[in-house]
Automatic annotation (TrEMBL):
Highest rank taxon of the organism: Bacteria
GO MF annotations in UniProt: acyltransferase activity, transferring groups other than amino-acyl groups
Name recorded for this polypeptide: GNAT family N-acetyltransferase
Enzyme class: transferase
Pfam families (alphabetical): Acetyltransf_9 (PF13527)
PROSITE patterns: GNAT
EC number: 2.3.1.-
Length: 296
């Protein structure tokens, strides 16, 4: 029966096929077509995002997509790929379509990449393809901060305002890696899609004096830092000087080795959305975390 379906890949720039994916996104993930259209029209969905899709006539019925996601691990750049948008129309489930798509994807990525990564709430679906769950850790320090400025000198970026998006897009290509131990390097696609996440999109702040963007929140005296986007990452003291809220603790949701901090507590990050990796990470069980801004 599957031989009645048509397989297509690498069609991001073909509107006739790309737009056929939108209803599948809406049916499976509840992502509205208007949001996907906006994402593409703003140049945030580009040809680095490669769909592998089965079509039944004009209808997209199963899909998995890949995009480059290079990592820095122990100071060495590693060529990696992310897999996302894994979805099958319920009517077409049980026919092995996703198994077929993954076989096609793995043939391609094994020729080009050292590692493949994905996030999932259902790890058992991916272990047959050589993926394994890896534990992630966030990092905590005690840091007593009393605001220096009664009025905030930070600009809260509105990621639906193109001028604010341009600030980020002008800095990102030249950003310093968050960590030498473990950090994503080419995560523009995931970052831009997270613009639409209610958990993140109000947390981007631009500090003009430092030419830096910090993604953070302060809740109940705890400053949670999710990302820092800057050509040169400022010292933690410089960043905190601009934060207009008091706090006594900082939690870093990435490996904070760039700050050379003493007495850092490592805490296992418990989440239903598990990070899975295919390939052998050269980390020797050292704690690390994929920044939430790079999660996909």
């Amino acid at each position: 029966m599957n031989d009645q379906l048509n397989f297509h890949t690498n069609f991001t720039n073909d509107p006739n096929k790309r737009e056929k994916l939108y209803p599948l996104f809406e049916k499976i993930f509840g992502i509205e077509t208007s949001l996907l259209e906006d994402f593409y029209n703003r140049g945030l969905w580009n040809d680095l995002y490669v769909p592998y899709t089965y079509f039944d006539g004009e209808q997209a019925v199963a899909n998995a997509s890949i995009f480059p996601l290079d990592l820095q691990i122990n100071g060495v750049r590693k060529k990696c790929v992310g897999i996302q948008s894994v979805m099958t129309d319920p009517v077409y489930r049980g026919r092995g379509l996703m198994k077929d798509l993954f076989k096609k994807i793995l043939v391609d990525i094994d020729k080009q990449y050292e590692f493949a990564l994905l996030f999932t709430e259902s790890p058992s679906l991916y272990t047959p393809f050589g993926f394994r769950v890896v534990k992630q850790y966030y990092f905590k320090i005690e840091y007593n901060h009393v605001p220096s400025y009664p009025q905030s000198k930070m600009k809260n970026l509105n990621l639906f305002n193109q001028e604010d998006v341009n600030i980020l897009m002008n800095i990102f290509p030249y950003k310093e890696a968050l960590s030498k131990k473990f950090a994503p390097l080419t995560y523009e696609h995931a970052l831009y899609f997270n613009f639409y996440s209610p958990n993140l999109n109000q947390k981007f702040y631009y500090i003009k004096e430092l030419k830096a963007i910090i993604v953070f929140e302060v809740i109940n005296g705890i400053c949670r830092v999710f990302d820092i986007i800057s050509e040169t990452i400022p010292a933690i003291e410089e960043l905190c000087a601009f934060i207009p809220f008091p706090f006594h603790t900082i939690e870093f949701y990435f490996s904070p080795d760039v700050f050379k901090l003493p007495h850092v507590e490592e805490i296992e990050y418990n989440t239903e959305n598990h990070l899975m990796i295919r390939g052998q990470l050269p980390l020797h069980s050292e704690p690390f975390m994929m920044p939430l801004t790079a999660e996909f």
